[in-house]
């Protein structure tokens, strides 16, 4: 295995990008006024299906952010954009904008012992957060932690073990419900004096232990200097499998946990391309079409499959955005089209956060952001716009443009529940439109919401409704075409402020 440092990778990728540009004929764009007719016919299902099976196939090994697989997939996307006739709009005349991501994880020197059981993080126990800890305390098992079971238990100075039980409401992602419940209850117990909290799966939760603990092996990520890079001490929260239930109940056991953490920097990359506009003045403004190319990579096998391909999340958004780029290359609008594939979205919207802080065009020239996030599953006529309603709506003009196209062309039944501030999934805050909205750029996201295969190896290309992806790609394109050719920019709503 060959290891390259960040600068070496950057030079290699830049050289590849230069070869892409030099190997193609000079790209010329008509500078006359944009025609009134659009190029929606350039968006077709055969292209989308071909690109989907290529990007979400095993060849790219799940495109994990910060890995060579993400970089390899990014080169492939850039090559497709070049072949379509798009111009590079990244750094140094390339399609790429590199940035660092910082990973903080639990070290192999960390130790966890309960009674006579020596446990290893990442194998037979999982610590929920990579934080420094040193605990040596008696263990008390409190059953399912009901008020009756807790009534006569003094948790102060103890490690508290609880059987995790229960199910999430049907409309929720069980993962979010589960971790939210664990963290909330653990915080309550620590406030009451507990030195550690140990969750033990029941039979129902064991399925989710097998399914969701892969992410805990990685630790946490952020841009360098971000809040998730800070190393701190806290009472550990540990998750055990259902097999531990038999012995965790034994009395007079001691909990000993020493946690150390370490950090690494990795390169990730945004892919940036453009189609210059045709209007002499408006071409200096940009309609930005946003998506992300990364997913979860290669992880512990589930049902014999270790590659988490991320066909819906978010190869579906990528191939739609590629199709939109193809349409603008065929017929440019008055304003320029800017295409951005954000890296490391799954690690905390890192690529979009970085691009907003380091845009390759003047930030004030970005007229609107239309983000594509998971657009290929669930009922054929169902979809949602994130940012459609207050307090998430930051541009009524932009929302109305998308709604008008849906009414005249797309004809989706729009779910509005997931965009509400009280929705427990917080879906609005989990995709790449968010950093732009926070920067007061008009921004919305198009999505078809969660499904049972979300963040599992079952998110495969053969489960994607490519006809639906094609319809949504046309919807996004026609909305963006409208914004690109309007005499006036869409406006940010006065007083826009997110609830968090």
Automatic annotation (TrEMBL):
Coiled-coil stretches noted in the UniProt entry, renumbered to this chain: none
Keywords of the record: Signal
Signal peptide stretch: 1-30
The Peptidase M28 domain, residue ranges: 270-476
Record InterPro entries: M28_fam, PA_dom_sf, Peptidase_M28
GO terms under biological process: proteolysis
Gene Ontology molecular function, alphabetical: metalloexopeptidase activity
The name this protein goes by in its record: M28 family peptidase
Annotated source species: Spirosoma agri
């Amino acid at each position: 295995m060959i290891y390259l440092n960040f600068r070496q990778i950057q030079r290699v990728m830049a050289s590849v990008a230069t070869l892409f540009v030099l190997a193609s004929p000079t790209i010329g764009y008509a500078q006359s006024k944009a025609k009134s007719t659009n190029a929606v016919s350039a968006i077709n299902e055969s292209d989308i299906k071909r690109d989907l099976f290529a990007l979400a196939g095993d060849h790219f090994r799940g495109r994990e952010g910060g890995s060579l697989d993400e970089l390899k997939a990014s080169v492939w996307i850039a090559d497709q954009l070049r072949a379509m006739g798009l111009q590079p709009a990244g750094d140094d005349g390339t399609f790429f904008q590199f940035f660092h991501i910082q990973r903080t994880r639990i070290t192999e020197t960390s130790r966890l012992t309960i009674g006579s059981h020596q446990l290893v993080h990442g194998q037979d126990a999982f610590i929920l957060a990579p934080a420094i800890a040193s605990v040596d305390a008696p263990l008390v098992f409190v059953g399912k932690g009901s008020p009756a079971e807790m009534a006569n238990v003094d948790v102060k100075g103890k490690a508290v073990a609880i059987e995790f039980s229960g199910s999430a409401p049907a409309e929720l992602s069980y993962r979010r419900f589960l971790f939210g419940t664990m963290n909330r209850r653990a915080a309550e117990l620590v406030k009451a004096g507990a030195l550690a909290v140990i969750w033990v799966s029941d039979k129902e939760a064991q399925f989710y232990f097998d399914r969701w603990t892969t992410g805990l092996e990685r630790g946490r990520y952020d841009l360098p200097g971000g809040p998730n890079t800070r190393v701190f001490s806290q009472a550990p929260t540990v998750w055990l499998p259902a097999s531990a239930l038999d012995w965790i109940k034994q009395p007079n056991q001691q909990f000993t946990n020493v946690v150390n953490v370490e950090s690494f920097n990795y390169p990730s990359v945004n892919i940036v391309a453009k189609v210059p506009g045709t209007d002499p003045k408006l071409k200096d403004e940009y309609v930005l079409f946003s998506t992300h190319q990364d997913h979860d990579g290669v992880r512990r096998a589930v049902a014999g499959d270790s590659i988490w391909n991320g066909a819906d999340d978010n190869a579906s958004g990528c191939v739609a955005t590629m199709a939109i780029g193809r349409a603008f290359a065929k017929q440019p609008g008055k304003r320029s089209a800017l295409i951005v594939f954000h890296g490391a979205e799954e690690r905390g919207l890192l690529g979009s956060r970085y691009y907003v802080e380091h845009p390759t065009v003047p930030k004030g020239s970005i007229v609107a952001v239309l983000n594509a996030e998971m657009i290929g599953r669930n009922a054929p006529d169902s979809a949602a716009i994130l940012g459609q309603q207050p307090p998430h709506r930051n541009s009524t003009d932009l929302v109305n443009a998308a709604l008008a196209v849906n009414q005249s062309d797309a004809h989706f039944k729009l779910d509005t529940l997931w965009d509400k501030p009280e929705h427990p999934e917080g879906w609005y805050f989990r995709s790449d439109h968010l950093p732009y909205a926070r920067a007061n750029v008009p921004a919305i996201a198009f999505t078809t919401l969660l499904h049972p295969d979300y963040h599992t190896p079952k998110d495969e290309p053969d489960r994607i409704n490519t006809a639906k992806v094609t319809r949504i790609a046309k919807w996004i394109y026609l909305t963006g075409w409208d914004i690109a050719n309007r005499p006036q920019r869409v406006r940010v709503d006065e007083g826009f402020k997110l609830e968090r």
